[in-house]
Design brief:
Layout lengths: L1 H17 L3 E11 L9 E4 L9 H16 L3 E2 L7 E28 L23 E28 L5 E11 L4 H12 L9 E9 L4
Parallel strand pairs: 2-3, 2-4
Antiparallel strand pairs: 1-6, 1-7, 4-5, 5-6
Helix pairs in contact: 2-3
């Protein structure tokens, strides 16, 4: 009965932890020359290169579109835009070698004649050490090597004037985590890019976004 109660308690704890929100921390650096007043916030996305125009890129483009809408921007929808928006992202796998201490038994054979010793113990037979093979087992510190994968992600979003190409807003978001899935992390990175838009210029800051678990 006690075992069943412990298992049930452990399962409940796992479900409770599984439902907790995840905090995603990113380093955000913004440079901008954003006008104090901008009446026309219509925009179009710059067309990416053919190798970058993937379904994944288009999915993240929709995330940026959603954040732009929150800031009062609107899609030009075929009309002449006032702004152009560009976006790029990268994910880099950074494998890290980890040394973990472990205790491993060792086999220490000792068979000496005369007044010898075995490990930390002296043993004599009539003034002479036993001539028989007398192994000694004991622990000694050793290390095992494992590889941890850390994933560094970078998101860049730029907004320029469509009329003269002047850069008005550049933001770079960096995040490193052990989560291999970029689609799970990207909503938080896009949110961080527009947090407090346009934000302080030329200042690196840490932005935390709580992300609720799916389902």
């Amino acid at each position: 009965m006690k075992r069943l109660i412990m298992v049930a308690a452990g399962t409940a704890l796992a479900l409770l932890l599984g439902g907790c929100a995840t905090t995603i921390r990113s380093d955000v650096t913004t440079f901008h020359q954003w006008p104090a007043q901008m009446e026309d916030k219509s925009y179009v996305f710059e067309v990416p290169s053919p190798q970058d125009d993937t379904l994944e890129w288009r999915s993240y483009q929709e995330l940026v579109r959603g954040q732009l809408a929150r800031q009062g921007f609107r899609d030009a929808d075929g009309a002449t835009p006032a702004l152009t928006v560009s976006m790029r992202f990268t994910t880099t796998d950074l494998p890290v070698r980890v040394l973990e201490p472990m205790m491993t038994p060792y086999f220490y054979p000792s068979a000496r004649f005369g007044y010898g010793y075995r490990g930390f113990h002296r043993r004599y037979w009539g003034g002479w050490y036993s001539p028989f093979y007398d192994p000694f087992w004991g622990p000694y510190p050793a290390y095992q090597t494992s590889i941890e994968h850390h994933y560094r992600r970078e998101l860049q979003v730029s907004i320029k004037s469509a009329r003269d190409g002047k850069r008005l807003f550049d933001v770079t978001v960096h995040n490193t985590s052990r989560n291999m899935s970029t689609p799970e992390i990207m909503p938080a990175l896009v949110h961080s890019a527009f947090e407090g838009f346009p934000g302080p210029s030329g200042v690196a800051r840490r932005v935390e976004v709580k992300q609720e678990p799916k389902g």
